[in-house]
Amino acid sequence: MTEAVPAKPVSMSWGQRLLALAFCAAVLALLAFSLRPRPVPPIGVQTAAARQGAITRKVTAAGKLQAATEVKLSSNLSGDLLDLTVHEGDRVKKGQYLGRIDSRRYAAQVRQQEAARASAAADLGLEEVQVRKLEAELARVRRLAGSGNASQAELERAESDVAAERARAQAARQRIAQAEAALAEARHFLDLTTLYAPIDGIVTSRQKQVGERVRGSDFSEDVIVIVATLSSMEAKVEVGEHEVVYLHEGDQAEVEIDAFPDRRWPAQVVEIAKNATIKNAGTEAEVTTFPVRLALTAPVAGALPGMSCQAGISTETHEKAVVVPIQAVTVRTEKQLRGPAERRDERPVAPAPGARARREPTQKVVFVVERGVARARRVETGLASESEIEILDGVKPGETVVEGPYKVLARELEDGKPVKDAVPGEGGKKS
User: Fold this and answer.
1) pLDDT at 30 over 80
2) What pLDDT is recorded for position 357?
3) How many domains does the chain have?
4) Radius of gyration of the chain (CA)
5) What is the average pLDDT value for the chain, to the nearest integer?
6) In which domain, by residue range, is 200 found?
7) Closest CA to 71 of 208, 212, 203, 214
8) What is the pLDDT of residue 264?
């Protein structure tokens, strides 16, 4: 039986040992490198420089065009419409004949009052003749009384007869005046059966047709045609209750009409309503607005009442203000502004049973870029225009601020995160 020969231990040279140690060190180094925390990749943002300059507060509102002067022509009389010579779009001059209402009834009333006046005049003639007769009789009785041939009683009776007849003559004169007043009224009603243009303008609406019945009333108008002066137009817009407090009569404005895109017309605030218009009252969708009238100071060829428009009203200007793009201002809660370390140390507080969860207060912030890092700055804002906003405190002129994209500003960006200017096409397009 053959005995096993023990294996000799393998001996490594110093070179092999150094090579093995180097290999182990490389593996450990590679493992340590792979396990070390990686730096946060910078977020692509759009930036802008805060500038110092003028900014004007602008209040925007939407509404409709309307004629500066619009007259609704109706009738004070009831009757059938026998003639109407104008149509929508016709240009008319003040005093121009437009149409007429059946006048037979009112012409008859004129003839009736003319007859009444003639009858009263005839009665006055008779009374005047009688007065002259009694005055002559009085003169005769006075002569007889002077010669003693008539008694005092006869004289007094003659005087009283003259006085009574004079009174009856005066009553006849009053009846004539009454008849003349009634005749004037009847003639006025007859004149009202003919319709004339009240102003120079354009017929914007014809609401009656020949043969229809016109209702005359002092309490509710029955409109026949509407005449408007389209050479001067107004915009009637609705301004929210939080913005109307900044408006004043005489403020300058610009009006853009939907029918004429990319053009704006100068205007001026001429009236701010004191009564609110409330829509959806008593619901969550309740909206309170105030009507505001703007007079367009330049003619708008082709504009018609009822066209939709938008107005930008300039209310106040600050000349030397620190201004940033309006989208650069965002909001964060106090918890978000305290940073990750402080948030980890916070202990959540459970609300009391039945109590409503309290909403965290928010702060206006602007993210300022400092050496490639976004820093959240609490800011106070002032006036706002259509595209820019005034910073009263928190940002200095020349500092670089983040203005987009909206998603990054609203949700992702935090204090201390690295940022870089985004390249268009890689998430850097403006929202």
Assistant:
1) no
2) 54
3) 4
4) 48
5) 84
6) 72-101+194-228
7) 203
8) 92
Do 146 and 161 share a domain, yes or no? yes
Characterize the bridge pairing of strands 43-49 and 419-421.
parallel
18-32, 244-258, 264-278: which has the minimum mean pLDDT?
18-32
* CA 235/CA 295 separation, integer angstroms: 7
Burial of residue 5 (number of CB atoms within 10 Å: 0-12, 13-18, 19+): exposed
Distance CA 23, CA 117 (A): 137
Instruction: Give the lowest-confidence range in 16-25, 67-76, 370-379.
Output: 16-25
Asked whether residue 275 falls in the same domain as residue 289, the answer is yes
Q: Encode pLDDT of 351-403 as tens digits.
A: 556 555 566 778 899 999 998 899 999 999 988 888 899 999 999 999 999 99
Please, what is the angle between helix 152-192 and helix 104-147, to 10°?
170
Q: What is the mean pLDDT of residues 96-106?
A: 92
181 and 122 belong to one structural domain: yes
What's the CA gap between 389 and 395, in Å, rounded? Answer: 12
User: 157 and 272, same structural domain?
Assistant: no
What's phi and psi for 335, nearest 5 deg? Answer: -65, -40
The one-letter code for the residue type at 269 is V
Tell me what percent of the residues of the chain surpass a pLDDT of 90: 42
Q: Provide the pLDDT for residue 348.
A: 56
